[in-house]
Design goal:
- The structure holds two protein chains of two kinds.
- By secondary structure, chain A is mainly alpha-helical.
- Chain A has eight helices and no strands.
- The chains are: A mainly alpha, B alpha+beta.
- The interface between A and B is large, with 77 and 58 residues.
């Protein structure tokens, strides 16, 4: 078991952690979730048949672990607010109250802007942006991870960039207004 | 509409690629210990092995059956006894029954006094239910255990900008049978081929079974297609003179619902057995069939895995009002809010979306939403927008401008710019 963990850790840990962090936007939560990914993977490694690549399989497990966490947070929030009803995609927003990690804070202004701008994207769009550009997965790998068609990845990617561009533009306009 | 990768987009992509990698500060050993603890916890959550649940249920059922059906055992016992003994046994059983009834009554009273203490069976079921909940479901490849992630995927439309140099597309009809009726779903394939479009059309119609989507194949499987002097000729390979009405309509609707995305202003010529014309079921003899763009509206059909757009014509939804006049675009969009539930055809535009007005400006149409519009979720917006764009396309518009006070949710569709109508619906890779 330790050997398997060692191998997975050396090969994928930083990528999985980074992916989970950008998804949930909280380092402590990303730490918990990456552990959960290992637990699920180590429990079911013998069932992995190699139909998809190990890398996309792990990312897809991380994605589901992240989504489950976000849903749980939203359920808690909704329960607390006394709101009932099915969870829709609009309610899949990430609670974003944790402090920014050092890597972001110490980055250039554009990094913080981009990090903030990503909040404007829908959860699906964010998944595509993170996997495609931050994690450098190919279209095919992203499609495999998300369980989508390649064309859906392309369309979502196109829309995500567009949305991000508008969000960044709005941020700059707001800053300009504040500057005046 | 801007090109998908103009300079500004490229800059954003580069910035995204340079986002810092956030690292886990913990050591490998620290993480391993936490993982080990998690694995240990999971292993020591007492849970029944999968076979235990059905076995326990079966045992409980048998016990309950024996408890409440004493007559069954009596019958079985009595059938093996001589006549005289049977009577005495019956008397004894009657006495026993009344005694049992009394006991049951006493038990009921005692149970009602101890309502908070569930019976043995009642205790077992919630326990196993709880344990099942705690049990992480087995991880299977390629899907992963999760609670309620949406799995229905919309087969989005194909846009011109998605077609790269050397790429082409072909749209074929698939026949869907639902609740005693049938309708046509157009399916679009993007491909790279030097083949003539009409020959590609023939190939996909003949070869694509539709099986993976759970549909019958194309109703045009037995037709050979060719282009002659700029005309499209369809040669029937088998006699279709006496086919059922449903089958002949599937052929005609299938041609209409697919060829119109490939060729504009088209008239198909039919041949059979080396002669011009074909005897086609209830349509009688047909020599030519014009492909018109008189469809009015698009609707939604979903299987367990996919969502498709279906045209009103393909689903046999009326395109004319009581006076026999074709609906206007505004009326069509309004009608797209109601489906045909009896055959599982759903509305493409949710009820909460209110269209204030529709304005014609040459090859562009302006669709203005009311500010009170309630926007649906992202997936529904995508389906709705595609359906509206196709509806506009059938009215001859090349682009649509969406307007309104409250359209910020639709920004990603480039709603400040005119949106070009897509080239074909329901794209599969």
């Amino acid at each position: 078991m330790h050997d398997e963990f060692e191998r997975l850790y050396e090969t994928y840990h930083h990528s999985l952690y980074n992916y989970l962090f950008y998804m949930v936007r909280d380092q402590n939560v990303a730490e918990e979730l990456v552990q959960e990914v290992y637990i699920k993977v180590l429990q079911s490694l013998d069932t992995f048949e190699g139909k998809s690549s190990e890398k996309t399989w792990l990312y897809s497990i991380a994605r589901h672990v992240g989504i489950d966490w976000i849903r749980k947070q939203n359920r808690k929030k909704r329960k607390w607010l006394g709101v009932l009803g099915p969870i829709s995609k609009e309610n899949m927003e990430v609670p974003d109250t944790s402090p920014l990690p050092e890597e972001i804070v110490l980055g250039e202004e554009a990094v913080v802007e981009m990090y903030e701008g990503m909040k404007a994207c829908t959860p699906d769009q964010r998944h595509v942006l993170i996997l495609r550009y931050i994690e450098s997965l190919s279209i095919k790998e992203t499609a495999e991870t998300l369980g989508w068609s390649e064309s859906k990845v392309k369309t979502t990617q196109h829309r995500a960039i567009k949305k991000l561009r508008k969000a960044l533009q709005k941020q700059r306009e707001a800053e300009e207004r504040r500057g005046k | 509409m801007s090109h998908p990768f103009d300079q500004k987009d490229e800059k954003i992509i580069q910035q995204l690629k340079q986002m810092p990698r956030v690292t886990d500060e913990r050591s490998k050993n620290e993480i391993y210990h936490s993982v080990e603890e998690g694995l240990y916890r999971n292993r020591h959550v007492h849970r029944p092995t999968p076979w235990k649940v059905p076995v326990m249920t079966a045992v409980a059922v048998i016990l309950l059956f024996l408890l409440f059906t004493p007559s069954f055992t009596t019958l079985w016992q009595n059938s093996a006894l001589p006549e005289g003994e049977k009577e005495s046994t019956e008397r004894a059983q009657q006495e026993k029954l009344s005694y049992d009834e009394e006991r049951e009554l006493e038990e009921e009273i005692s149970l009602s006094q101890d309502e908070n203490e569930p019976s043995e069976v009642e205790v077992q079921e919630p326990e196993s239910g709880q344990e099942m909940e705690q049990t992480p479901p087995d991880t299977e490849e390629p899907t992963v255990p999760t609670t309620d992630v949406e799995t229905i995927q919309y087969t989005s439309s194909l846009t011109e900008e998605e077609l790269q140099t050397g790429e082409t597309f072909v749209t074929i009809p698939l026949l869907v049978k639902e609740e005693g009726t049938s309708f046509i779903i157009p399916l679009t394939f993007k491909t790279r081929s030097d083949k003539n479009r009409i020959k590609l059309y023939e190939q996909y119609n003949k070869e694509y079974s539709g099986e993976e989507l759970g549909f019958d194949g194309s109703p045009l499987q037995h037709i050979t297609w060719e282009e002659k002097d700029g005309n499209v000729v369809a040669t029937f390979e088998k006699d279709v003179s006496s086919i059922e009405k449903e089958e002949s309509e599937a052929i005609v609707h299938g041609i209409e619902e697919s060829l119109r995305f490939i060729r504009e202003q088209l008239e198909v010529q039919f041949t059979y057995n080396g002669e011009v014309g074909v005897q086609l079921g209830n349509f009688g003899r047909l020599e030519k069939y014009p492909i018109t763009h008189d469809n009015r509206g698009y609707y939604v059909y979903s299987t367990d895995s996919y969502t498709f757009l279906v045209s009103g014509k393909g689903a046999n939804i009326s395109m004319t009002n009581h006076d026999g006049e074709m609906y206007s675009l505004e009326e069509t969009l309004e009608r797209m809010k109601k489906g045909k539930e009896e055959i599982k055809i759903k509305a493409a535009i949710p009820e909460g979306v209110v269209i204030d007005h529709v304005q014609d400006r040459g090859d562009t149409v302006h669709i203005t939403f009311d500010e009170g519009t309630e926007w649906p979720n992202e997936e529904q917006i995508e389906v709705m927008v595609d359906a509206m764009l196709f509806a506009a396309k059938d009215f001859g518009y090349e682009q649509v401008i969406f307007e309104g006070e409250n359209i910020e949710n639709l920004e990603e569709y480039g709603f400040n710019d005119p949106v070009r109508v897509p080239v074909a619906p329901n794209k599969v890779d």
